[in-house]
Amino acid sequence: MGQLSGPTDPAADARWSPQPPRKGFLTDTSICIGCKACEVACKEWNHNPADGELELLGSSYDNTGALGANTWRHVAFIEQGRDAIAQARESGRQLVSLGMPKMPGTEAVTAPPDTDQFRWLMASDVCKHCTHAGCLDVCPTGALFRTEFGTVVVQDDVCNGCGNCVPACPFGVIERRTDGTAAPKTARGDAPAVRNAGIAQKCTMCYDRLVDGEIPACAKTCPTESIKFGDHADLIDDARRRVARLHAQGRTEARLYGANEHDGVGGTGSVFLLLDEPEVYGLPPDPRVATADLPAMFKRSALAAAGMLAAAAVAFLGGRR
């Protein structure tokens, strides 16, 4: 993973002193029941507006669709029909049905889907709080900053709404909140109809709660503890043990996403335990921050500039003779 300079620890890179342990999320999709309590808690705590009329999408029982400026936690309903199930089996993947949540201590039942026609997976998605965050790298105003907990937060009063961060995110998480007008932020009037209209918005991992010693609202309200919050290193260890248990139960497709510190974003603060390939959940299989190529680009530019200067010098000296 390329970077401009400095250590790979996010808080150390941001020059925080003292540096508390990096915090993060572990989202275990194997016990998510799709209740959307985390979505509601996130909206209520952060005063985020509703997405439309909250009607069903027509193609899904979901009613929000994806992460965005107004939805910082999104519970995806991955509905697999007959064709998707057949394709997965042809590839050799061992499909299992989530079934109903089990009480602690009971033996998990692992089997193919209950029917060849349909399978349902659920996952609560959120900002990844990348170790190497593209949104943070390209922000021209410093509105995005790295906190002492290793998370990435937008400062509403500093963001100028340029939108550079939107394409810089390899996960498509961050988005500008719209109020239905294309007018510049300074021409929107004194009292915009939508709070924080025109500026970038995303999950802050409830930074205002963390500084007070509280856990994020989504993790606090999750009834199955599908969303866990804590020290990032401890969560990774717990997640790996959980994957080993699932494999022992026959759920061999269980895997971690975001736990590899050598991937294209240096690992993520939000780690996910998935029951199928990342693409099934709408996640990129090999995320890469665009700014990772900057060091190599600078080197090539320097070599090109040196070559041009040398050629000019040779031409000048040759002309004088």
TrEMBL record:
Pfam families: Fer4_11, Fer4_4. Keywords: 4Fe-4S, Iron, Iron-sulfur, Membrane, Metal-binding, Repeat, Transmembrane, Transmembrane helix. It comes from the Bacteria. Residues 1-22 are annotated as: Disordered. GO terms for biological process: cellular respiration; formate oxidation. It is found in: Cell envelope. [4Fe-4S] cluster 3 binds at residues 127, 130, 135, 169. The chain crosses the membrane at residues 301-319. Its main location: other. One of its GO terms (cellular component) is cell envelope. SUPFAM superfamilies: 4Fe-4S ferredoxins. [4Fe-4S] cluster 2 binds at residues 42, 203, 206, 218. InterPro entries: 4Fe4S_Fe-S-bd, 4Fe4S_Fe_S_CS, FDH_Electron_Transfer_Unit, Formate_DH_Fe-S_su. [4Fe-4S] cluster 1 binds at residues 32, 35, 38, 222. The keyword Iron-sulfur applies. Residues 23-53, 118-149, 150-179 form the 4Fe-4S ferredoxin-type domain. [4Fe-4S] cluster 4 binds at residues 139, 159, 162, 165. Coiled coil: none annotated. Its cofactor is [4Fe-4S] cluster. This is Ferredoxin.
